[in-house]
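Notes from the 1:1 (GR / supervisor)

We went over the backlog. Supervisor wanted to see one worked example end to end before approving the batch request, so GR pasted a single chain during the call. The sequence is below; no edits were made to it. Supervisor asked that the structure be written out right there so they could see what the output format looks like.
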Amino acid sequence: MNNFFLLNHNAQRVKVIYFYRNSNTCNASQQMNPAINEVYLKHIEKFDLFVISRVNKKNKESLYNYLFYEGYYFPVYMIGRNSYRSIFNKLCPDCNHRITGYSGFFILDSNNTLLDQTNYDLSKDERIQMLNSYLD
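Structure output shown during the call:
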């Protein structure tokens, strides 16, 4: 199955690919998840959100329980390590996935062209401000 099939979900909206790590072990995710959930619920009609996780499939139920308990409503797609790197390379061949890091995201236009990306050195507020600039 083509990993990018879903990116044509709604060709008129901005798409955000958010790289998620389990919040129990990642401080960046602990800060970012409530903020991205808030933006998602506030602007759900303005963008498509694709949350991608490398959480091991055997931990799938635990992840879904955590998301439900915390009140997060965004969908999460689980992929393997090679697919994770492949997405980075496909969207941005010049990007370094180690710099982008977990809890980072790519913002794509309606033609799936990369508009912007976050890096690990941006604060949560800077990331959310970047995202909102494409939604307002």
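Supervisor's comment: The radius of gyration is 14 Å.
Batch request approved.
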